[in-house]
Amino acid sequence: MSQVAHIDEALVLWLNGFVGRSALLDALMEALVSDYLVPVLSSLVLLGLWFSGSSDAERYRNQLVTLTGGIAVGFSNALVTISNLLTFRNRPFVDLDINLYFYAPTDSSFPANPASVGFAIATVVWVRHRRLGAALYVLASLWGLARVYAGVHYPTDIVGGAILGVIAASLATGLVGRLAFIPRHVFKAFRAVYIA
Amino acid sequence: MLSAFLIDYIAWVFVSALCVIQFAAARSGLWGILYARRWPRATMGVSVLVILAAILWYFTTGERNQPDTGLGLDANVQAFWFAMSGAAAVGATLAVTSLINHRWGNNHGWDCRSGDAPPSGITWLSRTTFFHAIRARVAHSRRSASTSSERVGAG
Fold this sequence. Notes:
The complex is a heterodimer. Chain A is an all-alpha fold. Helices cover 76% and strands 0% of the residues of chain A. Chain B has helices at residues 4-28, 40-60, 75-100, 102-105, 130-154. In chain B, 34% of the residues are buried.
């Protein structure tokens, strides 16, 4: 366990050591690390899927992905909240001597909520659209990497968050699969007014 | 009162959502909800460029990494305003493209007098506009209602 913690700290110190070395890298990380870029891009993908498809059947399946993505985000937030009630881990900038390249969050470092949300949406999309899902996995991973770079998360926080995200996506997919009659009726009403 | 930070977020999401809808509609052949129906490829290219420009604008015009205990938005507020901005973008797209494509949308091929229900779902927006589709739906509902009341009267 102490070996893992040691590797965790070493990785944070190594990645955070790049802060201030390149203005371009810092600017890129400043956008990537933010609370807005990856969630907005991922959500825009879900919005785009709502209108995508060459037939009614394909569009219906895509709209289910949009719905499932929204539910998965809710589940991932719930899982992180439950986890935060059970455990608390200090942020790297509290325990280590590093350059904090972000504001100082006060909640638990483990698990990383951004990784949880990013991986939840990526997993839901990946189930039906492999390439698009893979792109979202890359985006979610970069978000996690940027958080370690900025000194607000340990790598294991990102891994933990990603696992919770995948679990949340699986739960959401299972739920929508079991209760498929509900979206079917709701979408039928939406189809009558041409918004689905 | 909305903060300048929140207004920027809403504007960014609204513009990006408009472009995402245009991109998806152009790719899926939903001609009735395109601003430039004759140029689907150009629509897709311009949409991507505007989305990238909007990201650049958002992250270069202010300090965006703010704590949600201060100027920043917490996850719930962010989700709420994303939904509002996205819905506004959908509404704006349906309304404006209905006006732009009004004449083209008239030739949707559905005859109110036929008695058949008009097609449902946004797939029909590949042949007509949102307003024409809604009008056809309302016309059919009225016709069905008057036919059934005539039957009741006759019975």
